Amino acid sequence: MALPSPVGSCIAFSSSSCSRPRRFLCAAIPVHQSRDLCLPVVRSARVAQLRPRVSVRLDRVLTSDEADEIGDGFFEAVEELERMVREPSDVLGDMVERLSARELQLVLVYFAQEGRDAYCALEVFDWLRRENRVDGETMELMVSIACGWIERLIGEDRAVEDVVGLLNEMDCVGLEPGFSMVEKVISLYWDSGKEEEAVEFVKDVLRRGGIGNPVAGEDGRGGLVGYLAWKMMADGKYLDAVKLVIDFRESGLNPEVYSYIVALTALVKEQKEFSKSLRTLRGSIKTGLVEELDSVNLGLIEQYQSDLLANGIRLSEWAIQEGSSTISGVVHERLLALYTCAGCGLKAEEQLWEMKFSGKQPDRELYDIILAICASQNEEGAVSRLLAGMEIRGAGPRKKTLLWLLRGYLKGGHYVKAAETLTKMLDVGFCPAYLDRAAVLQGLRKTLQESGSLDTYMKLCKRLSNMDLIGPCLVYMHINKYNLWVMKTL
């Protein structure tokens, strides 16, 4: 199906037929006066005595020996086609017996040159296709010629509608520009710094429909919006990729499901960078390099974080609504990564179970990371569920898992819970490193005045001393009311 005519284009488009006056093609294919024409056609009685000079482009279809074997039919066909008196299909049909396969390819190359009637090349290819004379080599040649036209259009800053018009002409003559060719156009725009034109090109193609729009790849992963978003993400423009997909969706252009996955991936990367910047900022505030943030800046940070999570929810809902059942596991995996990077323990745990129920088995490391986050936030219910989930899988708590749990409690300042975890590790034969043991004891000393902390501290010191993990301890306490010091050696 042909594309509707774009505004301002002089290419005659039709939804039912691709028959157009070839003089109108000038809006789509750049035609310039060439300084070095590779195949001179001299209209005289001595046509048979002339031979084309060898050029770089001709070397692709003819060797030097084959160039000497070009027959008179080739020159007569080119001369007749250039007169534009009859349709190219009529000319070729009358001379088909006198033209070899190589000469027909050479006709394509001749009219594809700058300064020649490029429409003839498309008409010749169309005739070859209808006559079932397009082999793999001819198809490769025509695709190469078309790619050259596209590169010239983009390099000369021609209008985006001209590039789309050329793709439409190719589709009309059976060249069928698929995703790989449209992907090349996007890459040419993006790699040459014409980012706005790349976005405009994708929008134009999606509005018209029918060219390069179907999802590409045997695994169903691909698409115009997804590929453009991926290009943005690869250049580190994570939020631009997210906003691109959302903008396409809200404008009614219906991007492919794969684009939502790319946007979610970009969102996770943006969240990682944001969380990293926040940690650096907090460290600078703690060391006094930066002043404490006021309420306005704190509000901006909270709003930015809220917007990231809200965009993640929107994208995931669209992906699940429009995708197949197999896509849900990937969506929950991306959301899990997003909430994990944002430090949202309960939300991350929820996505972990959703991911598991969708048939995508989470890695053991994911359990450990979310366990540590929930422990740092003292979410005892989530911690119990995660540990129980590991037990159900038939894998008891490993030293690494308990270490994640221990460090999670330490990070959150829950030192009594950290001491209980340390004791549990000792009970099952795991011995944490010295720094982990020291961190627990130091944290407990800070909270000795809290209820239960003293008893916990003394029991842990005794346990560690009995195992020769620390030296003898002297515990002392001063009772102000009686001005009494109580000391005990453990």
Portion of residues in beta strands equals: under 5%
Query: Roughly how many Å apart are the termini?
Result: 88 Å
- As residue ranges, the low-confidence spans are 1-17, 19-61, 215-220
State the share of residues found in helices, binned by percent: 55-70%
Name the overall outline.
elongated
Total count of helical runs of at least 4 residues: 21
Strand order, sheet with most strands: 1-2
Question: Brief description of this entry?
Answer:
The N terminus is likely disordered.
Provide structural commentary.
With 490 residues, the chain is mostly helical. The chain has a domain at 1-214. Helix content is 61%, strand content 2%. The chain has a two-stranded antiparallel ribbon with strand order 1-2. Strand 1 (474-479) and strand 2 (484-489) form a beta hairpin. Helix 11 packs across helix 12 (257-286) and helix 16 (364-376) runs parallel beside helix 18. The longest helix is centred in the middle third of the chain and has 30 residues, at 257-286. The radius of gyration is 35 Å and the shape is elongated. The model is unreliable at 1-17, 19-61 and 215-220 (pLDDT under 50). It comes from Colocasia esculenta (Wild taro).
